[in-house]
Amino acid sequence: MKATIERLNQYIGQEVRFGAWLANKRSSGKIAFLQLRDGTGFVQGVIVKNDVGEELFAQAKNLPQESSLYVDGTVKEDDRSPTGVELQVTGFEIIQEAEAYPITPKEHGTEFLMDNRHLWMRSRKQHALLRIRDEIIQATYAFFRENQFIKVDPPILTGSSAEGTTSLFHTKYFDEDAYLSQSGQLYMEAAALAFQRVFSFGPTFRAEKSKTRRHLIEFWMIEPEMAFCDHNESLEIQEQYVSHVVQAVLANCRQELTTLERDTSKLETIQAPFPRITYDKAVEMLQEAGYEVSWGEDFGAPHETYIAEQFQKPVFITNYPLEIKAFYMKPDPDYPETALCADLIAPEGYGEIIGGSQRIDDPQLMKQRYEEHNLSEEAYGWYLDLRKYGTVPHSGFGLGLERTVGWIAGTEHVRETIPFPRLLNRLYP
Known about the structure:
Elements: E1 15-28, E2 31-37, E3 42-48, H1 49-52, H2 54-62, E4 68-77, E5 85-96, H3 110-115, H4 117-120, H5 124-146, E6 150-151, E7 157-158, E8 170-173, E9 176-180, H6 185-195, E10 197-205, E11 218-227, H7 231-252, H8 254-259, H9 265-268, E12 276-278, H10 279-288, H11 301-309, E13 315-318, E14 331-332, E15 335-339, E16 341-346, E17 351-358, H12 363-372, H13 377-388, E18 394-400, H14 401-409
Parallel strand pairs: 3-5, 6-10, 12-13
Antiparallel strand pairs: 1-2, 1-4, 2-3, 4-5, 7-9, 8-9, 10-11, 11-18, 13-16, 14-15, 16-17, 17-18
């Protein structure tokens, strides 16, 4: 019976065969214990000398780490195993005896592991992290499909910046200047006025020379945009979406969370609604706690961490000053010095995972913003067109996938939440 490790619990008492790699091994007298992985999971294979013969047993004991093989055996129930089963090995066929594997069970430095990222991702914890990432992606597609969103793909090469900033990767597009996308948001606004509810999911790039544990040069963003949607409705969708993703990971990645030693009790409380405070209140809280922060300043990591520590769930900070936010954000009619916007701050020091706002829908106000931010109609004329031909209230947000994976999985640095991270000084492998 051809099987995978992930589904061995469906074959208890049966003979199975699967392809695997030898992750580790140990032996005790006439018994050897093989830690096997096949990409879907890990399982212990027990091989007894008297059952398989001296020659095969000797081969098993001498197999180098990461050798590949086809394994035959009987699935046995085992309550001590994280998977609930182990394999009584009856035979195996060696595909390749691996060379000396550079990543051993001993401790290795981060730079060494990052140089060997193509191999490090095979390890249990890295494997668990990337499976959690996949679950979040699958839950994302399910949530938006269930809520009548369609996926639209924005371009990666653009002629302008989404937020009018300078942290862009410049390239040449034949004889024109072009940039790697910071965000698909502007294009999602165009799509929302065609399809009402849309989302994009793809890579974005920020040329920021940052080395913090929260930053990557290339990262993936989920960016929904909704027509006929105000700021409050957008906040409700955001908290429902985040709740859905967390609960999906809890339901489908228990073993991975255990491997990562994640305290799941902190995740089990993540259900909408989430608390909301204004920027004004956040400044007041920080000042009372002794932080030197003035109204009109953006918050840094220590500020966000302190605020998050005051709540058990992710917290929305709303109504940031208009001057420190992007040109397209709509002013709050009741507090015009601030924007109808919010950042969602994750618990446990993981910082902002979502930024969102209601967008300006008034063509005259948008034209005024172009002038204030020195934006050319040559580059942004198409975006202004969206306000000329059937403008409506619309809102959207962007969720950073890697920060979200880091928070849910409980890992310290976002570099481990993406298969091949791009950091300030790392373009290899």
